[in-house]
């Protein structure tokens, strides 16, 4: 007689995603003596950070890889467990959730979703090298300071880049818009931003050119063949959200595809929390970390109280 496989153990909490948000949540949960498993697909956006200079506590800068290594070490030190998995479904069941990745399943009373977003990059084989040396920069709030007084290009649909160009104008006198969409007008919302940007001295090159990379810097080859070279180019081509699995479980989304959460980081599904870039409008490590602290503390308060027994009463 064949036996059906045993149901996976019911955990206190599962954290999905091991970027700065998920790793911080795991550390907090373990320090509340909650059992906590981190399921992660291994592609944190923070891995792209060549050197961050705005992470609290790192006055001399820190690379994304090193930051993740330290945060993972901290979570492990307090007993967080990790498994490599790309979760494809979250289902409510009785008083908790069932998560699955293909045939594999896990169960927990609470779930913290920390799955981030993925940047859309220019279609080219060199983008990784260009990000690593700062020729391509993906987040002006993160690193425009490092581009101060240099030649900056802003690449993307005209409707999106005008406001970013204006923002970057407070870092450099040499900012140029590089529109990807020939024949387009900026659209109602962006007309004013474009006017202000132009008035502030932001240059505008003809749309529809191509980005190139020579190993150190990016250039924009215009439709007429003229080439302009920049110390840094910021592409604004959007990002893919990872909120779909939570939406499929019934969680409400904002208009821009991030998850709606309350002040305690709870989604519209009780017991399902969301933190970091998958939620935030300001995609920053410090925001992700703060949201993780709030969510983990809420999870701890939601779970049944467990009086501690034993110990050596130090
Ligand atoms: C080039 C660059 C430079 C940056 N510089 C800075 C900076 O200087 N300062 C700063 O504060 N911020 C910076 N950022 C932003 C920062 O990296 C993000 O805000 C931060 O990584 C968000 O953390 P997170 O934990 O929410 O998401 P992430 O770090 O993206 O982690 C999400 C994790 O979830 C996993 N995942 C996704 N879907 C699933 C799934 N279905 N199942 C299992 N796992 C899943 C992913 O593989 C990943 O490991 C920078 C970003 C880039 C790209």
From TrEMBL:
It comes from the Bacteria. Keywords: Flavoprotein, Oxidoreductase. Residues 12-292 form the FAD/NAD(P)-binding domain. Transmembrane segments: none annotated. This is NAD(P)/FAD-dependent oxidoreductase. Pfam families: Pyr_redox_2. Gene3D superfamilies: FAD/NAD(P)-binding domain. The keyword Nucleotide-binding does not apply.
């Amino acid at each position: 007689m064949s036996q059906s496989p045993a149901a996976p153990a019911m955990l206190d909490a599962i954290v999905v995603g091991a970027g700065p948000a998920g790793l911080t949540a795991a550390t907090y949960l373990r320090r509340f003596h909650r059992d906590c498993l981190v399921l992660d697909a291994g592609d944190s956006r923070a891995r792209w950070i060549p050197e961050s200079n705005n992470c609290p506590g790192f006055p001399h800068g820190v690379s994304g890889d090193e930051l993740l290594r330290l945060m993972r070490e901290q979570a492990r030190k307090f007993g967080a467990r990790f498994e490599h998995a790309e979760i494809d479904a979250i289902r409510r069941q009785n008083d908790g959730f069932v998560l699955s990745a293909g045939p594999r399943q896990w169960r927990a009373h609470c779930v913290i979703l920390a799955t981030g977003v993925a940047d859309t990059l220019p279609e080219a084989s060199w983008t990784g090298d260009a990000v690593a040396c700062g020729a391509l920069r993906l987040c002006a709030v993160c690193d425009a300071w490092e581009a101060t007084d240099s030649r900056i290009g802003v690449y993307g649909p005209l409707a999106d880049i005008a406001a970013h160009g204006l923002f970057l104008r407070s870092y450099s006198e040499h900012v140029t818009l590089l529109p990807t969409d020939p024949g387009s007008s900026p659209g109602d919302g962006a007309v004013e931003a474009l006017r202000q940007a132009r008035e502030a001295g932001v240059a505008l090159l003809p749309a529809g050119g191509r980005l190139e990379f020579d190993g150190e810097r990016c250039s924009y080859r215009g439709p007429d063949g003229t080439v302009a070279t920049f110390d840094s180019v910021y592409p604004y081509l959007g990002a893919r959200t990872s909120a779909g699995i939570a939406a499929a479980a019934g969680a409400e989304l904002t208009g821009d595809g991030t998850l709606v959460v309350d002040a305690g980081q709870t989604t519209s599904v009780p017991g399902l929390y969301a933190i970091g870039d998958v939620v935030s409008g300001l995609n920053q490590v410090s925001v992700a970390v703060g949201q993780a602290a709030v969510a983990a503390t809420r999870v701890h308060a939601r779970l049944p109280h467990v009086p501690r027994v034993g110990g050596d009463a130090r």
